[in-house]
Amino acid sequence: MDNQDIFKESLQSLIAYAKGNDFKLEIEDIKNSFKDFKDNETVINEICAYLESEGIKINNYEVKENVLSFVDVNEDKKNDTVYPETVTSNKEKKFVEMYLNELKELGEKTPEDIEKLAESYLNGDANAKDELITSCLSLVSIIAADYDNKGLTSGDVLSEGNMGLIEGVSTYVGGSFINHITNSIKKSIERAIEEECMIYSNNQDFTNKMNKLDELSKELTNDDKAPSTSALAKAMNLSEDEITIMLKEAMKALYKDEESEGK
Fold this sequence. Notes:
mainly alpha; Four Helix Bundle (Hemerythrin (Met), subunit A)
């Protein structure tokens, strides 16, 4: 097991322990878990920042910087992701522009004001939750800008970010509110992008298989006699059931094309 795996395992164990301890940790718990890592103070600071973003309160420690570069929750994701092409309609562009202008009119609260609001929310202030959400809408728009052209339209990114904001406020139990809410917004957007990319990838894979099936059907046609399902399955290294489904889909597509031409 390399250092990266050890680090991940230690972090996961620490989070599991915190969840069973009312989402609270002592700074000594963290230091003992990561005492073997170099540049220990920097590591501890970034771990604490990450844990606070997960809603875990660290007793007797104040995060020096809101930087999560060392603890990257998405470090295993590939950078060569193929994003589906997104086209934002003029109507949606106007809506987004109008929405962003309305946010500017709301004004902005300082990070200190937001943290005080979060404290009031934890102390049972009935109005603090709605005020927190409204105050952080501009933060959603700032974060959303980093996800342009990654599989979702601008409006969809904002919508997913706002849902992450609402979820983040609801799951907040202490620690740095801004760290926690930023992480929640990003997770919501990235989750939606992943789903969109998965759908796109599956569609692309199916399209490629259909094209290959068409090519093989032509190659294996003998004296105008179409190849059998078993022959196609063997050639494509697929089951006969899969080939049958693909042939049915091909017939549906052909039927739709003929209908369109007839109109």
